[in-house]
Amino acid sequence: MMSLDKFTPAWVKRIGFATVAGLFIAGIVFWGGFNWALEATNKESFCIGCHEMEENVFREYQNTIHYTNRTGVRATCPDCHVPKEWGPKMIRKIQASNEVLHKILGTIDTPEKFNIKRPQLAQNEWKRMKANDSQECRNCHRYDYMDYTEQGNRAARMHPVAFTEGKTCIDCHKGIAHQLPAIDQHIGKQNDGAVAISHGEKPVEAAKEEAKPEAKAESK
Amino acid sequence: MRFIPALALAAAVLLSGVGSVGAQEKLVNEIGNVTIEGNSKIDMFRPEKDQDTIPRNFQKQPPLIPHSIKGYNITQNFNKCMDCHSKERAEETGATKVAKSHYLDREDKKGSNISPRRYFCMQCHVPQFDAKPLVANTYKPAAKKGE
């Protein structure tokens, strides 16, 4: 006992072994509980517990390849919408408290209300994925391991070009898991002035700047 | 023993179903070799994969789609085909540009954009498939101009 007493820090002596052991166990319980709660709120069944998700985005997603496919490998809601790394995950989870508020307010509690908000909601996700270089896509889909010979003609042609130009997945692959909001595709009057989607082109302002010298040359 | 009433009910439902089908005339499709009820195999279609373009069969035939269109939707919000085939996007994507005829309305007046009657691409353009003629025929396309 003498030797143990010698190595025991003063603060342990002050509060006692039992208290230290108790704190240690409480730590495990709290951390475990915290992780458990995080995991519990990171399940598809939790996401579609809200009828807002179940009746809108989940139904749309059921027709897509990330829900049903040949091999049965799936990407569930959190695989695309919640970052895997601890830090970004915490940030996203804290942001989600805003979604709880809007659940209570009933902001999107009917399909009609949801569709009114759809452009904004979609753009939020596009912005998030653009900012993190489509990290959630790349958790499974790695450029480096893509075998172009296995891809369709068009994918095999476009992928190398897009990667060389520094594009990211979401630049072209929008609306693959959920329906798109009205998009201004310049093909008719019905969606004039709706959301414009880029395909990873340079921002409009930058493109204008580059185009200017040419325009001047033409005018001469 | 408790299961027997349920089983009897199930059997009755099954038999009545079979009876009603048997009472109907056997419906056969136009070619005469597949019953209407037997069409389910044909209904189990799979999207065609990307492939080389098959030449057109006749002049002015709407070109066939030489690629997979799995999951491609045309809705009021978004026309997936036009994401590549519109005149703005065709150059970058290497897709065939939508033809000029698609800008004409039914009075043959040229609009500034594709005519609403051309919006649903797959009314005319379908995925290509090496389908054998259903019945023997002697169809030949009309000769091209100058031939």
Architecture overview:
The complex is a heterodimer of chains A (220) and B (147). Chain A contains twelve helices and no strands. By secondary structure, chain A is mainly α. Chain A has a domain at 48-182. Chain A is elongated. In chain A, 12% of the residues are buried. Mean pLDDT of chain A is 86; it is low at 203-220. Chain B is an all-alpha fold. Chain B has a domain at 47-131: Flavocytochrome C3, Chain A, domain 2. Residues 15-23 of chain B have low confidence and may be disordered. At the A-B interface, α10 of A face loops of B.
Q: What's the helix and strand layout?
A:
The complex is a heterodimer of chains A (220) and B (147).
Chain A: H1 2-7, H2 10-15, H3 17-40, H4 44-47, H5 51-61, H6 77-81, H7 86-105, H8 111-131, H9 135-138, H10 153-164, H11 169-172, H12 204-219
Chain B: H1 3-23, H2 40-43, H3 82-85, H4 90-93
Structural class of chain B: mainly alpha
- What is the beta-strand fraction of chain B? under 5%
Largest sheet of chain A: none
How many β strands of chain A by DSSP? 0
Shape field of chain B: globular
Secondary-structure element order of chain B, N to C: HHHH
CATH superfamily of the domain at 47-131 in chain B: Flavocytochrome C3, Chain A
Radius of gyration of chain A: 25 Å
Mean pLDDT of chain A: 86
